[in-house]
Amino acid sequence: MISKSITETKKIAADFASTLRGGETIALEGEIGAGKTTFTQGLAAALGAEGLARSPTFTVLNVYPTGREPIKKIVHVDAYRLRTSEDILNLGLEEWLGQPDSLVLIEWPNMVEEVEVKTDYVVRIEMGESADERKIEIEKK
Ligand SMILES: Nc1ncnc2c1ncn2[C@@H]1O[C@H](COP(=O)(O)OP(=O)(O)OP(=O)(O)O)[C@@H](O)[C@H]1O
Ligand SMILES: [Mg+2]
To answer: pTM of whole model > 0.85?
Structure first.
């Protein structure tokens, strides 16, 4: 898909969100500033979780309640700052994976290779022809 604005990216994410049932793990790929967090914000907001920050603080793993069922929690991981295997294993990511009432979204999934993650979808975001254009591909694994 082609997105020409932040709003369009969030809409694409919201449409995708409506196909999810809970328990899915979504890997987000794309360079710095591609729109991985923007996509996550759109997806989370569509499911009822509004508080997702553009730049998560120094916390790598954040949990956002939706106040709804069946997806009660959105778990957002921004693995970019992870450096050591110890940091990665200390995240406690495993306890969130595959939980039927949660969704896990992982930015920079290659940084958490130490953890066995069964990815259900890969979202790839690439820069487009103009500054605000993005190419978004959603692959079901
Ligand atoms: N069509 C678009 N979709 C999404 N973001 C866009 C679009 N056009 C411009 N932008 C801008 O691109 C940036 C995307 O930032 P965002 O934090 O979502 O990227 P990211 O992939 O999460 O980066 P990082 O790897 O640093 O976490 C924002 O500054 C946003 O305003
Ligand atoms: Mg980001």
So the answer is: yes
